[in-house]
Design brief:
CATH class of the domain at 1-184: Mainly Alpha
CATH topology of the domain at 1-184: Serine Threonine Protein Phosphatase 5, Tetratricopeptide repeat
Structural class: mainly alpha
Number of strands: 0
Distance between the termini: 23 Å
Radius of gyration: 29 Å
CATH architecture of the domain at 1-184: Alpha Horseshoe
Order of helices and strands: HHHHHHHHHHHHHHHHHHH
Largest sheet: none
CATH superfamily of the domain at 1-184: Tetratricopeptide repeat domain
Shape: elongated
Strand content: under 5%
Length: 402
């Protein structure tokens, strides 16, 4: 499994709808991993220096009328207005950007118990783009907001608990927070909770519960969950094994852009497993996956083009695809390319290149490549073999272009 996806990146909405467009400006780019931690340390936010009301004047010429009105309400102690004013100052929506002022107003609103402000303040400390980064304060404010029912805070706090960032690692509490957020409909939490159940991290392993939450996330459109749901049905983990349902979720994940799902779905369409055989669909999805540098898709697409079945025969394109996959480090592509260059039937015969790619394939674990390499060597001079051996020793798989 891969690390968990990033935590929610948007600021919690408030009653001030005029500032809704500013929410995306405080995106959080933290990568989460599923872990687990004991109880949070006592809330440390109260130790921060108490924020003081801003000295900004309501009639400041650079403020929009809406922000001026917010400022008046904020100075009169309205927590929702303080939260909204902080958003405006953080994002520059209707007022000049002022990170320090934004943090002070959020602190005032957070101290009044407004969960949205507590979450936003936690996010500011977590991200560190408005105030010096402080994971401990971030966790403390997330905890307050989560206890106040803020779903985004539940998810972000679970991430900190799972990674031990700012708080002691506690997988059990991380799982508990993920479950709380999942039950409130938070899709990424559903996915992470499913992973926790499937791995037995922070709670007892339970394949049925893992399948339940993975299905919830998949139905809500979570791409990775859709792909893993296909694996769950294929293997019968916590559910009855069902190839048709597995292919159903592969198709959804493929359409959502999941490259491994595109490759797997193409194979099912090609072979007619769990879905009617569909050569055109197989060709389409192999091309989609190959365009994303999936070497298995490149190999299968190359073989289709060499056979010329259900598509015009195209040896040149097949060689290009195999060469690309081989250069990216795929042992099977290296082996197949070497065989084709040695035989000289579908591709132009080239013993030197055949020897080179079969040698590389052999180094990468393709046992049958050894004998074929020796066969190719019989057609080469000693100097040619030495030259190719030098190339083989220097081989490094290329990194896919971004």
């Amino acid at each position: 499994m891969t690390c968990f996806p990033p935590r929610p990146t948007r600021i919690v909405r408030t009653a001030c709808k005029a500032l809704a467009t500013a929410l995306a400006c405080l995106s959080l780019a933290l990568s989460l991993t599923l872990g687990l931690t004991l109880g949070l340390t006592p809330a440390l936010a109260s130790k921060a220096t108490p924020a003081q009301p801003s000295v900004l004047e309501p009639d400041e010429a650079s403020f929009s009328p809406k922000v001026r009105a917010l400022l008046t309400k904020a100075q009169n102690g309205d927590a929702h207005a303080q939260n909204a004013l902080a958003l405006a100052l953080a994002t520059g929506d209707g007022a000049p950007k002022s990170p320090a002022e934004a943090v002070r107003w959020w602190t005032l609103a957070a101290d009044k118990g407004l969960a949205a402000a507590q979450f936003n303040l936690g996010l500011a400390y977590d991200q560190g783009n408005l105030t010096p980064q402080n994971a401990t304060l971030a966790a403390s404010w997330y905890e307050k907001a989560a206890n106040g029912g803020n779903v985004g805070a539940m998810y972000n706090l679970a991430g900190l608990l799972g990674s031990g960032h700012g708080v002691p690692m506690n997988l059990a509490q991380a799982a508990t927070r993920y479950e709380s957020a999942a039950r409130h409909g938070h899709v990424k939490s559903m996915y992470n909770l499913a992973l926790a159940y499937s791995r037995g991290q922070g709670l007892e392993r339970d394949d049925a519960k893992a399948a339940h939450w993975m299905l919830k996330a998949a139905e809500a459109g979570h791409q990775r969950a859709q792909y893993l749901m296909a694996q769950i049905y294929a293997q019968g983990l916590g559910v009855h094994k069902d190839t048709a349902k597995s292919v159903h979720w592969l198709e959804h994940a493929a359409k959502a852009g999941h490259v491994n799902a595109q490759y797997s779905y193409a194979r099912h369409c090609q072979q007619g497993q769990g879905t009617p055989q569909n050569p055109a669909a197989a060709l389409h999805w192999y091309r989609e996956a190959a365009a994303k540098n999936h070497t298995g898709a490149m190999c299968n697409l190359a073989l289709i083009m060499l056979e010329g079945k259900d598509v015009a025969k195209n040896p040149a394109e097949a060689e290009r695809l195999l060469m690309r996959a081989a250069e990216l480090g795929d042992p099977k592509a290296q082996h197949n390319l070497g065989v084709l260059l040695l035989e000289g039937q579908e591709l132009t015969k080239n013993p030197e290149q055949a020897y080179y790619w079969l040698s590389v394939a052999a180094r990468h674990g393709q046992a049958e490549a050894h004998a074929l390499r020796d066969k190719a060597a019989k057609e080469l001079s000693r100097s040619q073999i030495e030259a190719q051996n030098t190339r083989v020793a220097a081989f490094k798989a290329r990194k896919p272009a971004n």
